[in-house]
Structure formats: C-alpha cells, structure tokens
Write a structure and sequence with these properties.
single chain; alpha+beta; two-stranded antiparallel sheet; 2 helices; 2 strands; 18% helix
C-alpha cells in the first residue's frame, strides 16, 4: 500500500473506513486518473458490472 494508513483508507463511494491495513481483500482497488481509490465490499458488489466494464466511478 502507498503512504495511506488504515485510518485514512476509506471507501471512495460511501466513506466507510477500512478496519485493517491493508484493506480487506473483499475491497476493490481502482486507479482512476492517477488517483488510487478503494471501494468497500458493499459498493463493489452494487457496481460490479461498471467496475468490470472499467467505467470510472463517476459513471456509476
């Protein structure tokens, strides 16, 4: 993981904080426009088709 700690890693969609460092393997990592973003399990599940289609999270 880069310079982020577990306290600062939050879901980019809903803001849920990661409880472990690194975030759980059920979380999704995305690199969008050069920025690292993590999505919690619930947000990833709700948007799996958009994620697999490589749509930016702004389109979800």
């Amino acid at each position: 993981m880069d310079d982020q700690t577990a306290e600062s890693v939050r879901c980019a969609r809903c803001g849920t904080p990661a409880e472990t460092s690194p975030p759980p393997t059920t979380w999704t990592f995305s690199m969008e426009n050069g920025a690292a973003q993590y999505f919690c399990e619930d947000c990833a599940r709700a948007n799996i088709r958009a994620i697999e289609g490589r749509l930016d999270s702004a389109w979800w």
